[in-house]
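cron nightly-structures :: item 1 of 1
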Amino acid sequence: MPESDPTLRFSSRVENYIRYRPGYPPAIIDLLRAECQLTPDSTIADVGSGTGMLTELFLKNGNRVYGVEPNQEMRQAAERLLAGYPQFVSLAARAESIPLDDASVDFVTAGQSFHWFERESARREFARLLRPGGWVVLIWNVRRRAATPFMTAYEQLVRKYAVDYEMVKQKHVDQAGLAAFFAPAGYRQATFDNHQVFDLEGVKGRLLSSSYTPEEGHPNYVPMLEALRAIFEEYQEDGRVTFDYDCQVYYGQLLPAQGVRGLATAESSPDP
């Protein structure tokens, strides 16, 4: 998997991503209504929109949403899944170059994708797109890696068998990096509980939806799935295990800045 082009990482994982990745709590809409004056008339550019999970949250609110996604397979899945929403517009583009007019949107959002962007270029592009008073909203579902014995065992499994987990973790943005991105205006933060409950087939799909896990044919693939079955059988209750997440929301407005170099890394796992 070429590290130089992260847009290709999910091409073979689309169906697992659709079926087994967590969505986003509706409370995010309530937060943005209260804090950022989100209304059904607000226009959204959802960047790195993937299969449309975050996009759909805003479509259900009545918003016009531009889903900006460079990966063809992910984008086509969103076009299929969101075809019933007339307010949805699909764009084949990267975060650093978006084919929309200056000052054309009220919100730029990124769900589970911002850590893949070239941040200085993306910041300039977001600032160009936003109308006066517009907002950038960055969202991640972050696994609670030690919340339960099962979550601890799952984290150990990923560390043992994943192909490039440490490289992916290093791309996540910590508080200092977010402060640099939103400088000089700063940002606000909110966290919501999020959960998924899986049977064995579901937890397998959840594992294989992650871009850093080996796929069929890799020497780690079969041992990884055998280890997954073992920890599932050890920790399941009534044939189910629970994934626990913190859904982290960072939101702010962009004012002129000198740059966003020196973005540091975080210990939390964005689970790309």
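cron nightly-structures :: done
The longest helix spans residues 221-235.
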